[in-house]
Structures are given as structure tokens and as C-alpha cells.
Amino acid sequence: MKIQPRTLLINSFLAGSIVLFGCNTMDKPDLTRLYLASHKATDQPPVVVIHGLMGGKLRRQDNHTELWPGDITDIAFSNYEHLALPIEPTTLEPADDGLETFAITDKTAGQDFYRAILQTLEGPGGFHPMTPGNSVKYGTRNYYVFTYDWRQDNVTSAKKLSQFIEQIRHDYHQPNLKVDIIAHSMGGLIARYYLRYGESDVLNNNDFPLNQHGGERVRRVVLLGTPNIGSVESIQAFIEGFNVGFGSLPTEVMATMPSLYQLFPHPISPWLITIEGNQLERDIFDVEIWKRFQWSIFNPKIRQRIKSKFTDIDAAEEYLQTLERYFEKHLERARRFVWSLTVPVEKVPWRLIVFGGDCALTPARMVVEEIEGESVIKLWPDNIENPLPEINYGQLMLEPGDGSVTKASLLARESLDPTIPRHSYSFFPLDYAFFLCEKHNRLTGNINFQDNLLNTLLTRDERF
């Protein structure tokens, strides 16, 4: 029978409509259907979830008043000066300020941070929320949330992570138990330090003796949006402050937090270039460069703002001198911290999987421009006053990433070009990586991440 053109057209339209409607019903994976059958397996190791920078709620120990992130008014307008850590002037270490971490930031001001990933673990994943110190029911899947004071030195947090995991092993009555770790952002740096050094502080010199304490207790490590060789955005935040709603976390407050120094770019990372596009060899961990460019607490306006909070001039000067020495000490510790994560490891008994974004333009470099005989740092391409027409500053200064962490840093590479071999000073035993079109603070809620995460956690591996 001969088909009339009109009939053919209608049939084609209907077929196309069926395809379109079918696609509309397949816009996201059905995690429950994908992983329901896996619930029969009861030998799944426990999972430890580690939040990132600012991902843990802080409160006063005495009256449990929440100070971070606080209520909607705090988020919208606070400058969070009360989060500044007091400094012990003799040791140049943070003093106790009476704050404690008490929960993960699940959802705040209508924005989801970690709630979705926990719900996925509990629902499709079949995991039960647990806290260390409680008995474990045989045959159940369990997950734990490790919260820490994200202001403190990452080595301090790694020590607490070690104690946290030891308690889990004790609760399971399995001295050889291994856990899986899911770590977001800075939490991934804490996990990586733990794998290599456990509870040891190796930042007092440049030896970095490995003990593989954590590596013997971990099966898989999933890093999500972790700045494995640092973040240029962290330098920008130290220079300008960090915006929170309509308020901010001032640079002089950030300068009291040791962990934030440890987010600076690794020395192998080309973080500074000339107006001609050439790399400048400058040491971000040298306090003299901060003084030269008058960044952070060396900015006269910032210093005046600090002094204005004191009624006694001598006390203000004394605090500034202490803060300067504190700044220099924690810059040096940060240098050693980033190096400690990239020295070679002979044996790697765990699997390392990386997830992150590669669709958002992300700060990768800053430019030095000579203006009236002075060297001036430009943070963004649009800020350059006398650009050279042959230079694409947007391409030089911004790279694909998640808006905070570049793809190159995610992979612990100094170059975005995957054909260039990894730097010999960046040991990073990557198994494989997944890339998402998602911003940094929304990575955990991405359905494709959750799908691949469950597949990663639940897949059997002959090495374990």
C-alpha cells in the first residue's frame, strides 16, 4: 500500500513526539530502582562523610547559641567578626574561643548543602546514620558524618578524623576494618593528610615521614571538588574578604584561621603572570610578598580597621604585631602542608576517585600590571587597565572548573592540558575521575554525582 505524504508526516510527528516524551521521562536516573537490589548485600563497609570549608555548624559551648551559619539575618548581613580565633601570643597558635562544631550544614537559607547527599545514602543507598560510640547492629549498612571546626589547622582536623575512625573500628569489633570516605572540598585535603600521616604532625620541618596510618584503614576515597593543588580564589578572599550574603567574612578574621592558608596554590601552580602573559616565579607562602603588595592585614585600611576596635592604642599595636607573627608562622605551615600531600607514596592500598565541575570559569591566575611605576595585582580580566590587544586575559586568568576549584587543581595538575605529563612533584594516585556541570557548593546535590557515587561505593573490587 502506498503511504500518502500527509500520513507519513503525521506518523513521523507521532514517532518524534513519542521520542520526545520518552526523553522527558528520562531526565534523571531513578536511584531507588537502580540500587534497590543492592540492599541485599550486608557486608558493605561503613562510609564516613567529611564536609568542606564552612560546612560544619558552630555554636557556643556554654549556651549552644549557633554562630555559624546562624539564622537568615546572620547570613544576609553579618560580617562574622565573632568567628575570629583568639591568638596565644607565645605559641602563636589559636586559643580556645569557646566554640564547638555540632552538626553538618545540611540546608541553610533555602539552599541545600549536604542534606541531599545524606538522603541519597539513606534512601537508595540503604545506609543508616550512625554516630561513633554506639553499638553496631550486624548486617546493616551505616554511614557517619565527621564534623570539625573548619577554622582550625587541617592537621588538627586530621587527628580528630583518625580518632573518629578508630572509634568506628572499635564499635564494629573489627580491628582490621576499612572504611570508605566521601570528602567535599577542603575535607578532601584532611582525608589525604590522614591517609599518609594519621595523627602525626609532620609540618615542623621538611622531612614529611610517611606512616600510612590512615591508608591501612581506608578502602576507597571519593574526593568531590577538592582543591588538590590549591585555589587562587583563596588568595582573592584573603585580599578582598569573603562575601556571605550581603555581609562578609573580613580578611582580618580569615587571617586567624590556619586552615585557610592551607588552601593557597601549591608552589608548582602558575598562579601569577605578567601583563605579557608570562609566568612569574613568586612565593605565595613568603610573607614579604604579602607585605610588598599590602594584602590582607598588611593593607593600611585593614590595619586601621583593626585598630579601631581597640580603645587602647598600645594594645592595638601589640595585637597587630602578634597577628603579623602568627600570619608568617601559618604561611610556613601551609607551605609544608601542601608539599606534604604531594610527596611520593610507595604503596597505595586505597582507591582514589575524583568528582568535580569543569563548566564554570574559575580563577586560575592573577596578573601583575605596572601602573605609574608601581606593580599592581589584578584579580580579574576586566580590571586590567592597559591590556595588550594580542593577549586573551580571560583565557589566561580563568579556567574551567566549578567556580572555586579549577579542573587542573581537582586533578592535582599544574596544567589544564591533559596531554602534558603530571608534574614530578605532584604524586596523586588517581584511579579515575568524573566531571559535572555544577557549581562548587552544589556538587553534593547533583543527581549524576549521587548516581556514580553509589555505583562506586557498592561495586565490588577484587583488591579488597
Can you lay out the helices and strands and say which pair or pack?
Blueprint: H1 5-24, H2 31-35, E1 47-50, E2 56-60, E3 66-68, H3 72-77, E4 87-88, E5 93-94, E6 99-104, E7 107-108, E8 111-112, H4 115-122, E9 127-130, E10 141-146, H5 154-172, E11 179-184, H6 186-197, E12 218-224, H7 232-240, E13 242-244, E14 247-249, H8 251-254, H9 258-261, E15 272-274, H10 287-293, H11 300-307, H12 313-340, E16 351-357, E17 360-363, E18 366-371, E19 374-378, H13 393-397, E20 398-401, H14 407-410, E21 432-436, H15 447-458
Parallel strand pairs: 1-10, 1-11, 9-10, 11-12, 12-16, 15-18, 16-21
Antiparallel strand pairs: 2-3, 2-6, 4-5, 7-8, 13-14, 17-20, 18-19
Helix pairs in contact: 5-6
Number of helices: 15
> Approximately what portion of the residues adopt beta-strand conformation?
15-25%
CATH superfamily of the domain at 33-231 and 339-359 and 416-458: Alpha/Beta hydrolase fold, catalytic domain
Distance between the termini: 63 Å
Helix percent reads 25-40%
| Text of the CATH class of the domain at 33-231 and 339-359 and 416-458 | Alpha Beta
Strand order across the largest sheet? 9-10-1-11-12-16-21
Task: Give the integer mean of the pLDDT values.
Answer: 91
Calculate Rg over CA atoms: 24 Å
